[in-house]
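Key idea: predict the complex, not the pieces.
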Amino acid sequence: MSTYKIAVVGDKDTVLAFKSLGVDIFPVLNEKEANFTITKLAKENYAVIFVTEQIAKEIPEKIAQYRNHMIPAITLIPSNRGTLGIGIGEVKKSVEKAIGVDILFGREGEE
Amino acid sequence: MTSGVVVKVSGPLVVATGLPQAKMFDVVKVGQQGLVGEVIEVHGEKLSIQVYEETSGLGPGDPVVSTGAPLSVELGPGMLEGIFDGTQRPLDVVEAIAGSYITRGIDIPALNREKKWDFVPTAKVGQKVTGGDIIGTVQETVIVEHRIMVPPGISGEIVEINQGSFTVTDTVAKIKTDDGSIVDVSMMQKWPVRMPRPYKEKLPPMEPMATGQRVIDTFFPVTKGGTACIPGPFGSGKTVVQHQLAKWADAEIVVYIGCGERGNEMTDVLLEFPELIDPKTGEPLMKRTVLIANTSNMPVAAREASIYTGITIAEYFRDMGYSVALMADSTSRWAEALREMSGRLEEMPGDEGYPAYLSRRLAEFYERAGRVIALGSGEREGTVTVVGAVSPPGGDLSEPVTQATLRVVKVFWALDSSLAYARHFPAINWLTSYSLYADTVEEYMNQNISSDWKDLRAEAMRLLQEESSLQEIVRLVGIDALSIKDRLILEVARSIREDFLHQNAFHEVDTYTSLNKQYRMLKLILTFYEEAQKAIDKGVVFSEIENMPVRERIARAKYSDEKDAKIFDEIEQELKQQIEKLMEGGKLND
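Result:
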């Protein structure tokens, strides 16, 4: 069994920076391309796929499709144009689901 | 003829003494009115007689006369387009003489004695014939040629045969038998109803009987010469399925027995059939139909006879070399008639009060179906297909009539009240029904319709089964827990259910689907499944597949004209284009 790989999917400008870290980068232009790329990566032994928030918000159905899968883990990251807050929201949801309470961001008396 | 006397009357059961020469199953005339009855038990001096008519007003001392002959039907030209009661009295003639209700003791011959038929001999003087040989024909209706046969048991040389117009009782031929005596042969023969008509050889049923009903033809086919039953709770559409079969079944003769069900249902048949056009011949369906009506308001004992009357008529046409379909609606009412008589005879009851011989009687009836080589020279092949409705009280399939029926029939169409409630018609449950002819029919279909029929059917069946297990998961944890592939299965199974299995009996096009169209429809749905799988593998999201415009056309394909074969090619083309469109674009970085 070969080792798992890490991929970054997003617009060209954002993903380029990741190239220096040695991870595989997959620049995409539109949602269709993103859909196809993620599906292909999922089959190709990529365990973690980072997707920029800008792209992710266009393809909610594809992100949801892998939500219950162990592999690949799709993690949203901010792009070079700043964060949209969806990524952190997803993390918050995951934590809540895992331990039942929001220990990262929640403050007492809030919500 | 000596006369006996009535000693006891209990509903349709009359006990008489003083007829020492009467035998089991002899027909007797009871009372001053001469009510027709049949000896069903002989106990020393005492005869138990089931009377086929209402017995009120009868009392001890009334006369009983034996006819010395078993209950028989008259077989000859004049049965088609007719409606008879359980003992083969022509109801239209009865109505003309006695009004809407049958007068007790009315004695009318089953076949019209005055009507003349044009007899065309096909045998010649000097020809040797045996029982079952065809000696001439009568064009009974536009589509059915009635073949006049030598009655079974007679053989010899034809010494005279005449062409011309005759009534059914006129002698059309004279046969010199081997012992030198001359037998007159008329166009009519009599046959005791309880005795199966003889045949030369019984063959295994091979060919499917196309019914035009998709769920039946594709998933649970019945063969020509096969047996099938339709059990179902009331309101689930037994009668509609039976009517559909009577209308569209690919049989040359249809015998429809309305046994103990509502009179209005027979009225429907009488009103509808003359209007409906047979797709094969272009003539009204009534021209090939014989109706036996013994509705719920008619005497109970005659119900018992109606089943036998019907099957004897069916066998007679089978002997001519026709394929005959017999529908009995419903055998439960017939079994109830047996139960009533059994109870009055004070026999030891079996399950739920039905007589212990219930399953034997049912088996005897269904065993008279089959594909046979008829008696006589020339290998004529005829079939009788029997489809019996069963009405289990409360839809409980474990009751005795259903169980006894299931033991003998080979096709089981389980009507499901929850499907009927969900307005899915025909409400035949695809998970519990079965057909033991499926393998035979698959081979026939592979050869005659398309070589991948068997695979398509198996695939569709697998999807439907998978759907039911996935549905359970969905009920427990919700649709989101399913993978995209499973959701596709649900979607395709839904399409099979709604676009293929669901069939509107009252829609002019949808009411009948030819085997070829059924194949194309199923093929279309499964092509969609195949193409959609490819798209999903490529990464197309589910909502895009779900909302493809071509799916609307797939759903409407069932309403397309039978003759318009191109439409399926068009839809298939469109489907492939739309999938192609979903999959193109988005170049991949390899």
